[in-house]
Amino acid sequence: MEDIEDLLVGNGSGSPPGFRLPLNAVGVNLKKNKNKPKLHAKQLSETPISSKIPGTQTIYIKTFGCSHNQSDSEYMAGQLSSFGYSLSDSPEEADLWLINTCTVKSPSQSAMDTLISKGKSAKKPLVVAGCVPQGSRNVKELEGVSIVGVQQIDRVVEVVEETLKGHEVRLLNRKTLPALDLPKVRKNKFVEILPINVGCLGACTYCKTKHARGHLGSYTVNSLAGRVKTVIDDGVKEIWLSSEDTGAYGRDIGVNLPILLNAIVAELPSDGSTMLRIGMTNPPFILEHLKEIAEVLRHPCVYSFLHVPVQSGSDAILTAMNREYTVNEFRTVVDTLTELVPGMQIATDIICGFPGETDKDFSQTVNLIKAYKFAQVHISQFYPRPGTPAARMKKVPSNIVKQRSRELTSVFEAFTPYNGMEGRVERIWITDIAADGIHLVGHTKAYVQVLIVAQESMLGTSAIVKITSVGRWSVFGEVIETLNQINQKSKSVEKMLSEEKCSPCSDPCDSCACSGESEPCACGPESCGGQSTIEQSDVLQNEVLREDQNRRNLIGWLLRKRKNQAQKMVENGIASGSQKKQEWAKGAPEEWGVVDRALLGGLIVSVFTTVAILIHLGFKTMSSK
């Protein structure tokens, strides 16, 4: 086994150790072996090129674990793809397997072990990344494979190339955080998983992830806000903030989560086309920022959803876990956010059968879940992770652990969180295809999953839907209107009605009545009593729908005619008075004056006259024959 730094030192290319030049910049000096027999032309043509030239092979990537791991895999896939490697979902077709691992639970590591064994049996070169090799580099299953650490993903191309050459390499030393602007191949092109920091400040007795991800390391606010702006330009419609503990963000660099969230929200499009989802946060680090976080969660472009793991409803067990909060503090988080954020949805986690858990402790957990009836609860059995303090604690018998897990699951599955939604009209953001291949998947502002039957062309759009039925895990809806289409119509209508320019508004929290697009208010729509973005959108949608209805009848034609005439009058300076201008611009006065009635009467008389003349001419022609 060799270290990759040794493999790249003195490579004769003039590049520093660890630096990989692009393929077209690498000079290759082949060593001649005099004893090696020469290949004939036929043999040369039969030699596969993919086995000779770096960057021409096919890579299979398998990811286990959390969204942070998924983001790491997307970054590694992006780098490999940019250097010419092909990506495949078929392990049989691939020349090398890249396995990104998770160490949170035993089942995920067992799945990794099985996959590595299959790869070795199939004689596939293997590269293992993620938390398992970083936290447990000496486990038996990692013998004979290359490994790359969680903070070395920006060098995955080097590791892959050396592995394809037959070298076993390891790259695990922690360094500065990988750049956020690395090439990336997203699993879902509409969803950007954005890691805001690595590691955490906690020391939970059961957690192995801390061994792998290490102490807290946060990206700067400017780098994250810049990344958000970039991915929005790329067409991303959902941004997921990912972290081992979102609430701890920035404490190592002198900032905090609310500062970051406000900076990111400022980059989101004002039309609500791109949504932000805040990642998992433990209670201790958001208690002091609850009001600020609630304000962000109320923003029209932020999902009213938060994942806050409680793990147990017993203070005694939380102390044994070293979770650094009490059940009452968790309740404070849930109660405050639910009170301050309309429609707030909170997901949580429970570990059943933690060492020392008594029947009373478990009963307190069940009562907590019953009290709040969370729509999402992730229930898992306790798995002792090697090297953690909890692994040395006295275990609860496995049959009791399983029984408690089944009981709590039964309680949770009896909840009906979406009852009452049937018939409701909601705005959703559509980003994925359901597993059945029939429905598209969208989410409401509260991150309720909505399944609709629609064309794939609606992926990446926002729509107004009516909820037709509800299930246990999601609801079903039918599309009323695609908001992207409405927005396009709205812009054309606004342009037609608002071509005259006016002086700047005196109040910074007011938008000009004649401006085509309202500027976002720095103090927030609620603070200055203005309309929220959604309310303005609803008004605009109603105007567009009225415009469509007017096209269908004669009166609508007259209204449009009068509106155009009024607009010309305004442009020529004939009309006077701002109130009169606004009445003309609305184009739909409720009362008809004498001139209006005369115009309508004249039009009707003209129609009848024309018909009479045509009839007369027809009879005259027939009589002449």
Q: Would you mind describing this structure in some detail?
A:
By secondary structure, this protein is α/β, with parallel strands linked by helices. Among the domains are: 58-171, Rossmann fold (3-Layer(aba) Sandwich); 191-414, pyruvate-formate lyase- activating enzyme (Alpha-Beta Horseshoe); 424-483, OB fold (Dihydrolipoamide Acetyltransferase, E2P). The protein is built from 19 helices and 20 strands. The chain has helices at residues 4-8, 41-46, 67-82, 106-121, 131-135, 156-164, 209-213, 221-233, 257-265, 290-297, 315-321, 327-340, 359-372, 398-413, 483-497, 533-550, 554-571, 578-586, 594-624, and strands spanning 2-3, 58-63, 86-88, 96-101, 126-130, 146-148, 169-171, 191-195, 197-198, 217-218, 238-242, 275-277, 305-307, 345-352, 376-381, 425-433, 440-443, 449-452, 462-470, 475-482. The protein has a seven-stranded parallel sheet with strand order 1-7-6-5-4-2-3, with helices on both faces. The chain has a five-stranded mixed β-barrel with strand order 16-17-18-20-19. A three-stranded parallel sheet has the order 8-11-12, sandwiched between helices. Strand 19 and strand 20 (475-482) form a beta hairpin. Helix 17 packs antiparallel against helix 18 (578-586). It is globular and about 110 Å long. Residues 57-165 form the MTTase N-terminal domain. Its cofactor is [4Fe-4S] cluster. The chain crosses the membrane at residues 598-619. Residues 419-481 form the TRAM domain. One of its GO terms (biological process) is tRNA methylthiolation.
